[in-house]
Design brief:
The protein is mainly alpha-helical. The protein has one helix and no strands.
């Protein structure tokens, strides 16, 4: 009995599909990762700017 194999065209198509799928998963992972990092750092900057913004109404200075 002879062993049958897949044709070179189907093998090429499978390699392309697998490569595109891996790239898609990698892109989705890195986009989600960096998106969450930038969002959390943006929230930290907003919190720090809220803490540092204040108003001084009266200033008293005395020299003893």
């Amino acid at each position: 009995m002879g062993m049958k194999s897949i044709s070179p065209i189907i093998a090429t198509i499978l390699i392309i599909v697998i490569t595109v799928a891996i790239f898609g998963i990698f892109y989705a992972f890195t986009t989600g990762l960096f998106g969450s990092l930038t969002q959390s750092s943006s929230q930290q900057v907003q919190q720090q700017s809220q803490v540092t913004s204040f108003t001084i109404n009266n200033v008293y200075c005395s020299n003893n």
